[in-house]
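Write out this protein's structure.
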Amino acid sequence: MLNNSEGKGQNGFLNKRNTDGLKALAIIIIIISHMARYMPISDLFKSLIGGGGSLGVGIFFFLSGYGNACSLKRASVVERRKKCIYRVVKTIGVFAICLTLLCVFLSLFGYRSYSISEYFKHMFVLQIPETTTWYLKVQLSYYIVLLALCILGLGDSPHIQLVIVTIFSALEGFFFYAIKSSWWNGNTALCFSLGMCVFTYYDTFRKYFIKFSALYFRIIAMMVFILLYIPTCFGKVAWLQPIIFILLVLIVLFLWSGLGLQCVFFLYVPRITLALYLIHIGLLKPIFENGWSIVTIFGFLGASGMLSLVALGIETGVKKLFRQKGSK
């Protein structure tokens, strides 16, 4: 996930403040949409809220594609390969930390009990127990594709990268739609290449974002978003869904770009988004399967936040340890 201040300077519509805010917004939407499965509400509202989760994942893919394109452009040939390898290792490392914390927490509090063999089985297939980690695997696949492009000497060819990644995104989207019958997941995969596209043609996108920054354009954009989002949640426009999903993500970026919101929440949450994503999906079923109440809600949110911060602390400690060894 994108975690830098790159992006054409602090005055750009995708500066660090905006990207950090988008990460915080996206993870909130995702958590609420997942919690909606257990809420005592009608299927209609569950569908409306649930669609937002995939939109949040789409925003994460967009930011990742944008950040990776930015990072590769500004690095040397050797640094590009190192960065791609680092992202793969870091993602797997964060998963290992989160899986370990989840298994220990669920066992200690009597929610679940996992054997050593079950633990290593989930570790091997990169799977959080009783849920799916398709997002993690798709993200890793993009890092591997970018690494392959760098090895082939295409790391400094943004247009070729964009074409290859877009084809790869389309193939992954087709897999999810045809095999998994999940058009939401399939369309979110396209957002990685969308992020690369926005970075590659940044000046064009920035010009239009600024040109239509007036309040009435934002109100119109919000109305268009609602008109597109509602029927999309129920799969009423199947053949147009990839285009509509990309439009939804771009509208969110447009609406967010001029807000410039900044608070303590936005400073810390972006650092734990991957851990928070993995932790919360592992806690959902064990905690909420016994009912929906104030106790389970606060228990779920508190445990998710606490374990994510612990994961961040472990990750930071491991980084420092390797840096110290590397400097000797």
